[in-house]
Amino acid sequence: METVGVLDGPLVSRRLAMEFLRYAGVGGLAFVIDFGLLTLAVHLGVNYLTATVIGFLGGLLTAFTLCVLWVWRGTRATTPKDFVVFTVIGVIGLGLTYLGMWAGVGLLGMHYAIVKVLVAAVVLVWNFALRRLFVFFR
């Protein structure tokens, strides 16, 4: 297996590194869709909590679709069950974010922006690893 830079190691291949980079890009685009739908819905008079769900669902559908079409091309993970598992992993990631924010800001008194960046990095790896393992390469 060919390895890449600081990710050198016998188990980390160039393919895995490229999948992760594509996944991170998909996550960024999904966030833009999520935030855009949230903002649009609020602007149209939708309650912010309902708008949050609308945004989340838009981002989730974007992420799943692009993971199927681009991150893990050729996957057979296109069933409703695959989407449910993909979603559950994301919701658990949201819970980890909430827990991390609570611990970092609430307990340790750290600045929320710093905690968010740290937690986001952990959740990105969490979502990538579990989605790869349980949805796209089971």
Please estimate the helix content.
over 70%
What is the number of E strands?
A: 0
Give the termini distance in whole angstroms: 21 Å
Number of helices: 4
Please give the radius of gyration in angstroms. Answer: 16 Å
Unreliably modeled segments: 1-7
Overall mean pLDDT stands at: 87
Q: Estimate the strand proportion.
A: under 5%
Helix/strand/pairing category: mainly alpha
Shape: globular
Largest sheet: none
Note the run of SSEs as H and E. HHHH
What does this structure look like?
This protein has helices spanning 14-43, 48-71, 80-107, 112-136. With 138 residues, the protein is mainly alpha-helical. The chain is globular, with a radius of gyration of 16 Å.
Task: List key phrases describing it.
138 residues; mainly alpha; globular
Helix and strand arrangement:
Elements: H1 14-43, H2 48-71, H3 80-107, H4 112-136
Summarize, please.
It is built from four helices and no strands. It is mainly alpha-helical.
